Amino acid sequence: MDTGSNEPKKRYQRYLEAVTGPFDDKRRWRQYKARVRALPENYRAAVEALERYLMHFGPGDGAEAASMFEDIADLFEHAAADGTPIREIFGENPVEFVEAFLQNYSSGSYVRRERERFADAVARAAGETPGDDERAVR
Questions:
Q1: Residue pLDDT, tens place only, 76-120
Q2: Could you tell me if residue 75 is inside a domain?
Q3: Is the dihedral of CA 46, 74, 35, 110 positive or negative?
């Protein structure tokens, strides 16, 4: 599509990004997926299971999610290169591993944000300042 000048093209790109999301996040996602495809089969299967879990409980922000998935790719690339067994990466309880991993990402998961919102609403209803409970629901 020939737009004739740079300004209309930029406007067109802004419109597309508003509809589809930032192009940079999509580029990062494709690079991450390529890195995962290059892993040995058992590591790839573990990453795909982790990815599926994180799609439900991980950060909703595109940039932070992209960083999180890039960190996963780094972790598993190094583990594959070192020959680290899958169980040694996750430990005995994979859910504890993933929950500890998620703590490194500030916006956190949808579930965590909703728990905090709920606790704050109850605190306000009780006449307290939200956050007084030191986030006991975490």
A1: 999 999 999 999 999 999 999 998 888 887 665 666 777 778 888
A2: yes
A3: positive
Decide if 92 is inside a domain.
Answer: yes
Range of the domain at 72: 23-54+62-98
pLDDT in tens, 39-67: 999 999 999 999 998 888 777 667 788 88
Domains identified in the chain, total number: 1
What is the rounded distance in angstroms from the CA atom of residue 50 to the CA atom of residue 61?
A: 18
Confirm whether 89 is domain-assigned: yes
- Alpha-carbon distance of 123 to 118, in angstroms, equals 9
pTM, entire model: 0.66
**Phi, psi values for residue 40, rounded to 5°:** -60, 155
Kindly state the tokens that stand for 109. Answer: 């998961």
Question: Rounded to the nearest 10 degrees, how much is the dihedral formed by the CA atoms of 100, 43, 55, 17?
Answer: 120
Residue 118 lies in a domain: no
The residues pairing with 12 across neighbouring beta strands, listed in sequence order, are none
